[in-house]
Amino acid sequence: MAPPPPRRAALLLAALLLLALAGSAFPGATATGVFQVRRKFPVGVGGGAAGANISALRAHDGTRHGRLLAAADLPLGGLGLPTDTGLYYTEVKLGTPPKRYYVQVDTGSDILWVNCITCEQCPRKSGLGLDLTLYDPKASSTGSTVMCDQGFCAATFGGRLPKCSANVPCEYSVTYGDGSSTVGSFVNDALQFDQVTGDGQTQSANASVIFGCGAQQGGDLGSSSQALDGILGFGEANTSMLSQLATAGKVKKIFAHCLDTVKGGGIFAIGDVVQPKVKTTPLVADKPHYNVNLKTIDVGGTTLELPTDIFKPDDKKGTIIDSGTTLTYLPELVFKKVMLAVFNKHQDITFHDVQDFLCFQYPGSVDDGFPTITFHFEDDLALHVYPHEYFFPNGNDVYCVGFQNGALQSKDGKDIVLMGDLVLSNKLVVYDLENRVIGWTDYNCSSSIKIKDDKTGTTSTVNSHDLSFGSKFHWHMSLVLLVTMVCSYLIC
C-alpha cells in the first residue's frame, strides 16, 4: 500500500487494488483519438496573482498512476510552471446522442466517472465558467447499468461481492488523498472521441466503455467553485479508459507527453512513438505507481556521496515518476546534499521564505550561474535537469527552488523520491505499459513526434498544441497527469 498523502508536500500516489478484467468486452476496429485538455485553474481564476497560484499549487500537490493498434493524439496547451499551474481537465462525450462532460485527467486512478442524474448534491454550475452536465443513463440509447453479478464487477473486486443478487448494480467508492470522495455505480455506454485519419486530420469514432455514474461526491469534488463533471482515470488497471480502449483494440497501451514551458502547450499522445527514439528504464514490478530504480545523482558532473541503499525500492522508499505532481521531493539527506552542491559557488546568496518555498534574488541567468543536476537510472538512462527546470521565477529577479525536502512530508513518504512535472518538462516522456518501461529524452515540445500505426505500418505526425485561445474564456491550457492516492475502492 502506498504511503498516505503528505501534510504539505505532493505525493499523489495511485493505490487502486484491481484485478484483471475478464475477457474482451469491447470489440471494435482500431482507431486513434483526440481529447482536448484544459487547465482547471486558469490564470485569473480564483486570484490570478503568482502568489495565489503558488498556494494553489501546494494544495494541489498535497492532495494528489498481437492486436492491430493505432495511436491517439490528445491536444494540449498551457505552461507547467509553479506560478502558472493547477489542475487540468479534458472534454469527453458520452452516450447516444453524445453529451459533453468536463473531466479531470488522472493517471493515478483507474476509472472514468461523471456526476449522475441521481446526485442531489452535485454542483450544477462551476466557478471555472463551465456548463456542467449530469449523466442520465436512461437518456442514452446505448447506456446500461452494470450489475454486480456480471464479469466486470467480479473481476474488479476479486470475486463475487457479498449480498450480490440479480438486478443489484455494481457499486464503487473512491476516496482520494485530500479527503474528497465519490460513490456511485458502474454503467456501460458509448464514448465518442476523434480518430486521427492523417497528419492533423480527425473524424469521430466510438467505443463502448464502463464508467462510474457518481451519485454522491464529498470534499472538493462537491464544491461548485472548482467543480467539474468528473474524473478520467488514466492509470494502468484494466478498468481505466486507456486499458479498456486497448482491450477493445482501439489504442496501444503506450502514451507519451511533452510539456512545453517555453512556448506553452506541448504534445500528448497514445501509441508507439518511433521518432524521436527514447532510451528506457524498467518499471519496478508489482507497484501501482510509475516506480523506477534511481542509482546515483550528479551535480555539475560530481556524483553525490549517498548511502548505497537510499534509493532502494520498497514500501516506504524508492523513486516515482509523477508528471501530475509539479515539484520534486527528495529524502532529507539527499535534499541537503543537492542544495549544498547547487549553491556551493554562491555562499553569499540570501534566502527568504515565500509560502514555504526557498527563494532568493539573482539578477543573472540561472543556467549560466548554476550547475545541471543529473539523475542516473537503471540501464544507463539519465535525466538531465537544468537550472531553469529546478528553479522557477517568481518576479523581480526572484527564483524559488522547485525541489522540496521530503521531511516535510508524512512519515511514510519522507524517504520517497517523487519527480514531478517541473523536472519532466521540455522532455518527451514515454510510458510503455506493454513492455513495462518508461523513458525520455530532451526535446523541443513545440515541434512534433511520429507514432506508428500497427494496422498499416505507416507513421503519423502528432504535432504540438497550444489551445490557449480555443475557448471563449481564453484559458492557458496544459496537461498535468494527476496521480491521486486512492484509500478505498469498495463500499464500506
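[next item in queue]
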Amino acid sequence: MAGLSVRSVLVTGANRGIGLGLVQHFLRMPKPPQWIFAGCRDPKGQKAQELQNLASKHPNIIIIPLEVANPASIKAAAAKVGEHLGGSGLNLLINNAAILKVTTLDTETLEDMSEVYTTNTIGPLLMAQAFLPLLKKAAQGSPSSVLSCSKAAIVNISSSAGSITSLYIWDIFQATSYRCSKAALNMLSKCQSLAYKEHCILCVALHPGWVQTDMGSFPGQMPPTTVDESVQGILKVLSSLSEKETGAFLDWEGKVIPW
C-alpha cells in the first residue's frame, strides 16, 4: 500500500462489514493514518462492540457518533472531526454507510424508497457538503499538485447493482430501492467530481464486490468475496487513482463498470 499515504480518514458505517474491514486494514498499513475517524450510528451498542475493542487498543481510532440520514448528526460529526484535526484537513472521506431493503418491484413502498434513498444517496451528498471545508484544507496543505486519495478524496461506496447496463445479480434480488439509490449515488459522484475538481478533490464511485457481510448475504446464497479480499482490493485501487479516474465508476479490482 505504498502508494496510499493519508494523515486522516473518515469511514462511515465503520462498526461492521466493509466499514470495519477498512478501519482494520488502515491500521495494518506500513504507515497508518494519524487519525482514523470511525463513523457509527450507535457507538455504544452491541453492533459496535468490535469497533469499541479496536479503539480501546489503538488511540488513533476516534469513534464518531454519526447517522448519515440526520443532517444535525452530520454537522455535529464534522465539528468533532474538525476539533481533532486542529488546523489540518481531512484527506479521505469514505461514504460507506448504506441500507438495503430486500423487496420486489411490486412490494416497494414510499417509506422504504424514501428511507433507502435518504441514507444511500442524500447521506453522501450531505457528508460531502459538511466535510468539504476540511477536504479543501487537506488539498491546500498537500505538497502534491496532482489529484490523489493521499491528497484529498471522496470515495462513495456504490454497487454494480446500480448499473443500468449490468443490473448485477437481478436474478437473485430485485431490491429496486437499493438499485435506484446506487444509480443516483453514481450520478452524485460524477457531479461531485466536476464541482470539486477546482478544489483538487478526487471523487469516485466504487463497487466493493458482492461481499460476505450481513447486508450482502441472502438465504441460500454465499457471496463470492470476503471482506478482507474486498478491502485489500479497495485500498489497492485507492492507492492508484489519479486525475484521470476522478468521476469514474470502478470496482474493487480497478475495472471500469458501465453506468
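[queue empty]
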